[in-house]
Design brief:
Number of domains: 3
CATH superfamily of the largest domain: TonB
Distance between the termini: 70 Å
CATH architecture of the largest domain: 2-Layer Sandwich
Shape: globular
Oligomer: single chain
Strand content: 15-25%
Structural class: alpha+beta
Number of strands: 16
Number of helices: 11
Radius of gyration: 29 Å
CATH class of the largest domain: Alpha Beta
Length: about 375
């Protein structure tokens, strides 16, 4: 009888141990209100590994400022709230999970007019786009914690201009647009076709592509190159030809006007390079076909159909960064973030940097 009792006790001890192990492995689903270290939004530029010598307070101030900037850039003031002149503070609550994502989004305080729903939408969109948090810590382990975030909705009259990096006021609201030689867009297109020179050293290379430029037209009619994007990575010789073309338009512009006075504004110009060498006919036709597919995709309401057209266009022009950007944006809208980031990474590989770098970092990280 003693032997059976010993076996029974051994089985009881074993099951008790197994139960304790199972209990210790059960995930902690508690949502904590007090912790040793608060959650931290992992905003590009404020990541702990980027600033190993920063104290916790400096990291937190940087991250909170970065998060508010991201939110302000992406929040769209609801039309209903704008019409009703609704202003105020919305408070949104959410749980920062142990994997750095957020859940249980809800509005704690709403001011109406769609403002609460818009605050929730933007936070959810940032989470889906890849924004992560360093989770709260308690006892040296990551735990779930609820956060409350106040967001101020304030109606302001948008200024008719923005400031560029040098502090110039670039007007975007205009009474009259700048005009080229008094003839407008048709005369400008004719001028570009007649004056643009394909670099002679590359005539047999069959390089095709677009260089997009923007020029500042100042109140006295003078011009200045503002920006340039070589979408097809044509190279320095082609970029210089685009600049020379822009310089040839000096003295041919009438400035834009706002409230009766001339102002500085930006004019976009797309410069197309195609070689006239006979052997380049096939390359030119492939480029034209890709551009037609791209135009059709841009007009397509069904994102999946548009995606197919972007992909076909890229089969014809695999290194066209403009096409890669549009396909990546379509993939992002379809919640296919990893594929979108592959396209965005390819752009960075081809050009060295993207013209949408702040967005790429939020969506794809460093």
């Amino acid at each position: 009888m003693r032997k059976h009792r010993t076996i029974y006790l051994l089985w009881a001890l074993m099951w008790s141990s197994l139960a304790l192990v199972a209990q210790s492995q059960k995930p902690d689903t508690t949502i904590y209100d007090a912790v040793e270290r608060l959650p931290l939004p992992l905003v590009p530029g404020c990541l702990p590994e980027q600033h190993p010598n920063w104290p916790e307070d400096s990291l937190r101030r940087c991250a909170e400022r970065g998060l508010l900037m991201l939110l302000s850039r992406n929040i769209q003031y609801p039309a209903e709230a704008r019409r009703a002149n609704i202003e105020g503070t919305v408070v949104v609550s959410f749980v920062v999970e142990t994997d750095g994502r957020i859940s249980n989004l809800r509005t704690v305080k709403d001011i109406g007019g769609g403002c609460g729903a818009e605050a929730v939408r933007v936070l959810q969109a940032l989470d889906e786009a890849g924004l992560r948090w360093r989770p709260a810590q308690l006892g040296g382990r990551a735990v779930r914690m609820r956060q409350a975030l106040p967001l101020r909705f304030r109606l302001e009259d948008a200024p008719p201009f923005h400031l560029n990096e040098r502090g110039d006021s670039i007007y975007t609201v205009l009474d009259t647009l700048p005009r080229f030689q008094g003839g407008g867009e048709d005369v400008l297109i004719t001028f570009i076709l007649n004056e643009l020179r394909y670099p002679s050293a590359y005539r047999d290379s069959c390089k095709t592509g677009v260089i997009e430029t923007s020029i500042l037209v100042r109140p006295n009619g003078t011009i200045e190159m503002d920006n340039q994007i070589d979408f097809n990575n044509l190279g320095m010789d082609f970029q210089w030809e685009a600049i020379r073309l822009i310089n040839r338009t000096a003295g041919m512009w009438t400035p834009a006007y706002y409230q009766g006075r001339p102002v500085t504004t930006s004019v976009p110009l797309r410069v197309l390079f195609k070689s006239d060498a006979p052997r380049c006919q096939a390359a030119n036709e492939a480029f034209d076909q890709a551009m037609l597919l791209a135009a059709d995709a841009a007009d397509e309401e069904d994102l999946n159909v548009a995606l197919e057209k972007w992909t076909k266009a890229l089969q014809l022009q695999p290194n066209n960064t403009e096409l890669l950007y549009y396909r990546g944006s379509a993939l992002l809208n379809l919640n296919r973030r990893e594929e979108a980031c592959e396209d965005f990474a390819r752009i960075r590989q081809l050009l060295g940097i993207t013209w949408f770098e702040s967005l790429r970092r939020v969506v794809c990280g460093w």
